[in-house]
Specification:
- Belongs to the short-chain dehydrogenases/reductases (SDR) family.
- One of its GO terms (cellular component) is membrane.
- The chain is α/β, with parallel strands linked by helices and 267 residues long.
- Helices cover 48% and strands 13% of the residues.
- The protein has helices at residues 11-22, 34-38, 54-61, 86-114, 134-154, 173-179, 191-196, 207-219, 231-242, 245-254, 260-265, and strands at 2-6, 26-31, 44-48, 68-71, 117-121, 160-166, 226-229.
């Protein structure tokens, strides 16, 4: 199988690229981070490009046969919606949504010819919008709708589509976002929330579990359309359908830094 893995410089994407290459698949790993790509094994072909650059992506994939595209690209910034600048909002939409579309659209002609598949790593926040993750939640919710539409369009044309929705994963991803938060705004209306995010390191699913689900979705003869990884990723969306909005809001806030559930879980 010939597989394109985006976001391959580290975290979930790096684990997926290594696992698929170790299983004998031909893997092309793509990311902006050239140093991270250099750490991949020699069996993984790599290319350092900006996945938001449509011309660069199309040039890379021109005349390249692919059996699967695995999109693991993503990133976010912790901030209240009110404090999120238009540039920051746009940056998160482009990283988490536009970069996925650019890659998928460029690869679809060959995937359709070869009866291939698309596997997209989203996030639990696509179904459960978290405070101070507004732009990220918006992007991942958009990704959820994008994948549903894509599956309904290309499924009848021989292309399988699967969405992976993990909760927090042990990759350093959340810790980096917290380190870039804005605790210096001590007199702002969200100052207490920003201070609570200092040292944010949520209880998380281990990386190997998520990588295994992504690899399964990529290689299974008949993949599921959606894989929710972790108890939180499975149960919180269900509770949203059962509980009144205001009660559910309190439940979600309680699990964030400074909230009751957070304090109980991190004693």
């Amino acid at each position: 199988m010939r597989v394109l893995v985006t976001g391959a410089a580290g975290g979930i994407g790096g684990g997926v690229a290594r696992s698929l290459a170790a299983a004998g698949h031909d893997v092309l790993g793509v990311d902006r981070d050239a140093d991270g790509l250099a750490a991949l094994p020699e069996a993984v072909e790599t290319a350092a490009i900006d996945l938001r650059d449509e011309a660069a992506v199309r040039a890379l994939l021109a005349d390249r046969p692919l059996d699967a595209v695995v999109s693991c690209v993503g990133g976010y910034e912790i901030a209240a919606v009110e404090d999120t600048s238009a540039d920051a909002f746009r940056r998160q939409l482009e990283t988490n949504l536009t970069a996925v579309h650019v890659t998928v659209a460029a690869a679809l002609p060959t995937l359709r010819e070869r009866g291939g598949r698309v596997v997209v790593v989203g996030s639990m926040v696509g179904s459960v919008a978290l405070p101070y993750h507004g732009a990220y939640s918006a992007a991942k919710a958009g990704l959820d709708g994008y994948v549903d539409a894509l599956r309904r369009e290309v499924g009848p044309r021989g292309v399988d589509v699967a969405l992976i929705e993990p909760g927090p994963v042990q990759t350093g991803f959340n810790e980096r976002a917290a380190a870039a938060a804005r605790p210096d705004e001590s007199d702002g209306p969200y100052a207490d929330a920003y201070r609570a995010f200092e040292g944010y390191s949520p209880a998380a699913t281990d990386l190997e579990t998520v990588v295994e689900r992504v690899v399964t979705a990529t290689t299974a003869e008949r993949p599921r359309t959606r894989y929710r990884v972790s108890r939180r990723a499975r149960w919180l969306p269900r509770l949203a359908r059962l509980l009144p909005d205001r009660l559910y809001d309190r439940l979600v806030r309680a699990g964030l830094p400074g909230g009751l559930l957070w304090r109980l879980l991190h004693r």
